[in-house]
Amino acid sequence: MARRHDPDRRQRIIDAAIRVVGAKGIAGLSHRSVAAEADVPLGSTTYHFATLDDLMVAALRQANEGFANLLAARGALTDPDTDLAAELAGLLGEWLGGDRTGVELEYELYLAALRRPALRPVAAAWADDLAARLAARTDPATARALVAVLDGVCLQVLLTDTPYDEAYARDVLTRVAGGRR
């Protein structure tokens, strides 16, 4: 039998892993569950991702890209005339608005990094990248503090299942930024 050329298979496997984690959590992730979700042979998942950690790293990178794309689309972080705290609060509102599956997935994968060291560099890279972008508008220490506040607000909203309060987030971010615009 001829081997079927399937250039999108790796991406379909990553997408399937994200859906599995979204539906069943990290505990439901296995090569078998991903293969079934992607409708590919089990050997394809292990060919592209030798370990589950490899697969989770790819899924976390993809989830990070979603936030980075949202950040880039807003573009206001590069405009020194915009109110930084208001822009970040709006960004967070957009990220948390609507379907939270992607946000929940991202945080579930971040928390998995506590037990899976392979995920730590990817989680750290996201925080470092965001801090570097924010440092263009403020100093590096304040930029890292803003990232911590954004993470904290997201976790509080997700864990308490409360609605996102943009005015509160803007106020807290303004305090951390020292009133900087």
Q: What is the overall shape?
A: elongated
Major beta sheet summary: none
N-to-C CA distance: 64 Å
Arithmetic mean pLDDT: 87
Instruction: Name the structural class.
Output: mainly alpha
In helices, the fraction of residues equals: over 70%
Order of helices and strands: HHHHHHHHH
> What share of the residues does DSSP label as strand, in percent?
under 5%
Rg estimate, integer Å: 18 Å
Please give the number of β-strands: 0
Unreliable residue stretches: none
Number of helices: 9
Structure summary:
By secondary structure, this protein is an all-alpha fold.
What does this structure look like?
Residues 7-67 form the HTH tetR-type domain. The protein is mostly helical and 181 residues long. The chain has nine helices and no strands.
Write a concise keyword list for the protein shown above.
Homeodomain-like_sf, DNA-binding, TetR family transcriptional regulator, mainly alpha, 9 helices, 181 residues, TetR_C_31
Topology of helices and strands:
Layout: H1 9-24, H2 31-38, H3 42-48, H4 52-74, H5 84-96, H6 101-112, H7 120-135, H8 140-160, H9 166-176
